Amino acid sequence: MNFEFYKDFYQSIFLHSADGMLLTSPDGQILAANPAACRMLGRTEEEIRKVGRSGVVDVSDPHLAAAVAERAHHGVARAELTFVRADGSRFPAEVTSAIFHDGDGNTKTSMIIRDNSERRQLEQEREQYVRFFQLSTDPMCIADPFGCFKHVNPAFAKLTGYTEAELVSQPFLDFVLPEDRQKTADEMKLQVAVRPSLHFENSYVCKNGQVLRLSWTAYFDKTDGVTYATARDISAERALERKNRRISDILLCVRRINEHLLVAREEDELYRFVCNALSGVDRIVGAWIGLKTPEAMVRPVAAAGFDLALLQALQDGQDPGAMPWAPTRRALHERQPVMATSAETHGASPALHEAVTRLAVETVVSVPIQVEDDVIGAMVIWSARPVSASDESLQFFVEVAGDIAVGVRSLRLSRQLSTTLERLEGALMATVEAIAKLVETRDPYTAGHEHRVAELASAIGLRMGLPAQSIEGLRVIGHLHDLGKISIPAEILSKPTRLSAIEMELVQSHPEVGYEILKGLEFPWPVAQAVLQHHERLDGSGYPNRLQGDAISLEARIIAVADTVEAMSTHRPYRPARGLAAALEEITAHRGQLYDPAVVDACVAVLKDNPLQLAE
After folding, report:
1. pTM above 0.70, yes or no
2. Same domain flag for 410 and 462
């Protein structure tokens, strides 16, 4: 046997082993320590020999005495002992110790030391993870590489109603709602191929059939193909979001209806708009509005979501006590909302039941429309979801019915007001024309002058694109523009010869006289000012105040042109009629100097299109 070879062999192992090695005597003296042992213990070999076994092994470790006894009995022992570093810190190590005899027959012992700190730490971390996994209130699960449950914690089992034994080895996707299954599978494939961390949500079917909306955070471990996931039940959050969206849609619908109340011109138009606005909101599949008939029936006048003809046909061909008329008539009679389930349509006509079934109607809600003390009809909602008395949707329907009532009342008041205004306007015009005729009776040569000026001025205003209210004002001003002549003696008005300076000054005072008569009266137009200014001219050459340009009101500028054209076209006691052509030449020649250019252009266009305008 080559002892030198083995000596070198064992010495090489001693020096280069990753495990610590100590050569000791049975009494605990350390004879040698390899470099790995020195690194573990933080001491030099000389220091280790000096402190001995009791200096590097925790003598209080209960496993020490048992290991020594086992070695003495069997010649070899394996145990986990606690070792002490030079800095006083301790670490666990797996020790294999054996008794042997050297070449001289002396008894020696060897100790092979393997530091278990990392393994122990890993075991502790694993124990902590397992404890966390089991005790966590967050639902957790682990899936194998095939997408099947490997482990679930108690919180997950509690959430889903399944035990771990029922879930293990079952495909994860089997518990996902079918409509979410493909999307979830795609997300899982993306996780494996692209990114290990993933957030997604889906609908999960519990053991009792309940469907939960779960938010998942998953991590794919590529080393062993395992997926770790936590789930959070967000069903309440999503339900709240849906409710908020529903309320938002409801508020938007109410806003649209309220805005339309300001522009609606007819009741039927309002009813149609409301039905269209309601259809599709808050799972409303159809809405219709009916008005009460003298027979206390309901006549449909507007609908959305289904054919109005269907409702009318149902009304014509069924018992008045059947659906949907029974709850609607009750709503009219009781003056409060009435709800009926789809099941109650079984007593109605087959056509009605077929329509309700086809539209998946859950609840029919009838809300009376009450204008002041009179219930004029009802708004009927066909909803695809159950509606209870405490449901906010019912309050929404009541509010809409109230808005309809406000709109109807406003439209009816508007019609009444319009009728009253028309009568008042008629009376006003009759009074104005009577006054004009009174003035004309004092000057038979100008009979019809005020009327013709009024009509021409109105035609000019229409051609200029003025609003109807302003055109009506021009008609009134035209009839009253010469009202001040009532103060001028008739013999002066009908004098066939030239007027003296005093007479001319008296005639030219008629705008001021007319202004003084009219200034105390309230008109919706500047009547008194226009009468005062109708002889003013753009260049300041007019009277009584020599106003210029825009200082003269538009109404006065229009009357000035109409008055000039009419006066020149008709006979006067002091001269014959000069004719329409001469009148148009006059205003055209002084366009922009005496007369407003836009007014002149409009007047020329009016009389070109209708030369008989003055005669009419």
Report:
1. no
2. no
